[in-house]
Amino acid sequence: METQFTPLTSLTGGALIGFSAVILMISHGRIAGISGIISSILPPSIDRSEISQSLIFIVGLFLAAPLWFLIQGEIPVQVVSDNYILLGIAGLFVGFGSVLGNGCTSGHGVCGISRVSGRSIVATGTFMTTAFVTVLVLRHVVGG
Amino acid sequence: MRILSTLIAGLIFGTGLILSGMANPIKVQNFLDFFGSWDPSLALVMGGAILVTMPGFWLVQKRKTPFFNNVFHLPTKTDFDFRLLAGATIFGVGWGLGGFCPGPAVTSLPLAAKGTLVFVPAMLIGMAAAKLTSLKSRRSI
Question: Which member of A11, A61, A139, B135 has the greatest number of CB atoms within 10 A?
């Protein structure tokens, strides 16, 4: 299924993400790495000093879609696959990989690159490449 | 203020994900599909974010401390180890398979698409499993 090229909303949305990362940095001195924030509240090693701030940030994420509905009068457009086995595997990989590699699209892709971190630049190049190859195989080799 | 700043940061982050299209898995997969229905929009998400964070972080670092903390908690590692490369590789495969990364998946939970309700618990299990392996490897050293 095709999606429209949305340069303006994507650029603006990206700027909001960046703005949020700057707020976290100036108020708490923390990197807006979502995988780090989510995993910090999970066992086996819960970070008790940060658990309340992590939970509050996650509540903020939860409130975004309802707020969007209140302002826009419509639910955000979203097409999620109904191949649940595939999504289950995808979830396991995303969770395991982001924690093992110390970051995801936000921590490495946005914050790390902004800090010109060599590790983050290499990580972003790596996950972009494997994601690209995965979609290539999924849609053009397996999907035919 | 401490709580409010975090809540607002989360809310703005989630809104940015929705507005940009990052919270729409099919748009993410189209971005990654150069040889099919390619949609370059998401390059602009990263671009837009970095345009703000790069000067933003630079300005913030001129302060000695953040508002509500004693120190800036910045990553200090600089080496490219196996964990970084393996983690990024596995993460990318998962991102391509589902079109979801952690922020958009959590932001999408209230929309309650069945696929999201499968993805998020699986992601949490994956995260806990990775934490477990890192604890074990630290003990064995």
Answer: A61
Per-residue model confidence as pLDDT tens for chain A (144 residues): 899 999 999 999 999 999 999 999 999 999 989 999 999 999 887 877 788 999 999 999 999 999 999 999 999 999 999 999 999 999 999 999 999 999 999 999 999 999 999 999 999 999 999 999 999 999 999 875
A70, amino acid identity: L
How many angstroms separate the Cα of A80 from the Cα of each of B19, B59, B100? 16, 39, 9
Picking from A1, A49, A82, A94 by the largest number of B CB atoms within 10 A of its own CB, the best residue to mutate is A94
B117 touches A at CB < 8 Å = no
Is residue B17 within 8 Å of residue B23, measured between CB atoms?
A: yes
Determine which helix (DSSP H) or strand (DSSP E) holds A119, and give its type and residue range.
Answer: helix A118-136
B39 chain-A contacts, CB cut-off 8 A? 2-5
Structure token pair of residue A136: 């290539």
Global pTM value = 0.95
Three-state SS annotation for chain B: CHHHHHHHHHHHHHHHHHHHCCCCHHHHHHHCCCCCCCCCHHHHHHHHHHHHHHHHHHHHCCCCCCCCCCCCCCCCCCCCCHHHHHHHHHHHHHHHHHCCCHHHHHHHHHHCCHHHHHHHHHHHHHHHHHHHHHHHHHHHC
Q: Which of B3, B27, B93 sits opposite A3 (nearest CB)?
A: B27
Q: What is the ipTM of this complex?
A: 0.95
- Number of Cβ within a 10 Å radius of residue B37: 13
Instruction: Count A/B contacts: CB-CB distance under 8 Å.
Output: 501
